[in-house]
């Protein structure tokens, strides 16, 4: 926890994702991935893969009120009316002093990718839906590819329908064929993914608040960022000439390496295959470097 002193009050602030509860995380996701920030990104023509987003965020005055929203969203206090009134009536320069002195109280959300599952389940109507474990635990190759395609579609359209389709891939009912006494249950307790039923059932998610689905997006983006570091050889050159993203390539390569058919490969563990592919590509590149050295 971080502590901020304002007058006679000491305010507690979340300092990492692990401390944060799901309600706070949903508010933060709603701010970071909401339409207001998206419009600011477009206006500033920011491209995350080419621009230091944090630097642009800190120096650009247009982001000031977004930063204040994060400040309030991440406060861990039970509001007193007097304190709330005092905070909302401080002059802008006071907030600027606070945020400059304690930049870490909000800036860490941009520096630390979210890989912890802060929304393990949601209730939609009378049904509970369950998401993957920390850092895409339980996710298969097929699920990764399907979710990534829907994620990219949502990034382009920003439509509620595409957001529901993405969320519907990751969050599914409990599987009925086995229970907690089975080891497989603890690897992934969700029902097997079916593209057709997943897309059809996504219509039920219209009852779910958007912030919950945006939190799933924030988790997905955080996991992708970490995967690009952990499996750098698999992701190198991503986006240059690949129309379908890394998931399509992974399924294709996994089928070749493991000599499985497409359906069999799609059910393989994401991390198991990624580790194998990353190792194979690294070894292949090392062999090529050795050959080049000999030629010299």
Structure characterization notes:
- With 296 residues, this protein is mainly alpha-helical.
- The chain folds into 2 domains: 110 residues, no CATH class; 168 residues, no CATH class.
- The protein is built from 16 helices and 4 strands.
- The strands form 2 sheets. It has a two-stranded antiparallel ribbon. The protein has a two-stranded antiparallel sheet with strand order 3-4.
- A hairpin with a 2-residue loop joins strand 1 and strand 2.
- Helix 1 packs across helix 12, helix 8 runs antiparallel to helix 14 and helix 9 packs across helix 12.
- The protein is globular, with a radius of gyration of 22 Å.
- The N and C termini lie far apart (56 Å).
Layout of helices and strands:
Blueprint (H helix, E strand, L loop, with lengths): L1 E5 L2 E5 L8 H11 L2 H10 L8 H7 L4 H10 L7 H8 L3 H10 L2 H8 L9 E4 L2 E4 L10 H17 L2 H11 L12 H5 L7 H7 L8 H21 L1 H4 L9 H14 L3 H5 L3 H26 L1
Antiparallel strand pairs: 1-2, 3-4
């Amino acid at each position: 926890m971080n502590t901020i002193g304002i007058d006679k009050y000491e305010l507690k602030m979340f300092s990492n994702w692990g401390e944060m509860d799901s309600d706070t995380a949903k508010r933060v996701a709603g701010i970071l991935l909401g339409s207001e920030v998206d419009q600011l990104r477009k206006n500033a023509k920011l491209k995350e893969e080419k621009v230091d987003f944090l630097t642009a965020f800190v120096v650009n005055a247009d982001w000031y009120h977004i930063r204040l929203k994060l400040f309030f969203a991440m406060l861990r206090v039970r509001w007193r009316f007097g304190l709330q009134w005092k905070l909302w009536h401080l002059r802008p320069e006071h907030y600027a002093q606070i945020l400059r002195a304690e930049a870490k109280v909000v800036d860490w959300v941009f520096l630390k990718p979210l890989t912890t599952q802060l929304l393990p389940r949601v209730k939609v109507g009378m049904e509970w839906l369950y998401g993957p474990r920390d850092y895409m635990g339980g996710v298969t190759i097929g699920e990764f590819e399907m979710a990534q395609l829907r994620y990219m579609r949502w990034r382009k359209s920003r439509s509620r329908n595409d957001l529901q389709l993405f969320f519907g891939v990751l969050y599914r009912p409990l599987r009925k064929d086995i229970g907690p006494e089975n080891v497989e249950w603890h690897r992934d307790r969700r029902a097997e993914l079916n593209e057709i039923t997943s897309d059809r059932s996504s219509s039920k998610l219209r009852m779910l608040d958007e912030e919950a689905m945006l939190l799933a997006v924030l988790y997905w983006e955080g996991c992708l960022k970490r995967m690009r570091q952990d499996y750098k050889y698999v992701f190198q050159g991503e986006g240059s000439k690949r129309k379908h993203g890394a998931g399509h390539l992974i399924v294709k390569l996994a089928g070749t390496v493991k000599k499985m058919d497409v359906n069999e490969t799609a059910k393989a563990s994401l991390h198991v295959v990624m580790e194998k592919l990353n190792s194979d590509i690294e070894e292949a590149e090392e062999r090529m470097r050795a050959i080049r050295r000999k030629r010299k």
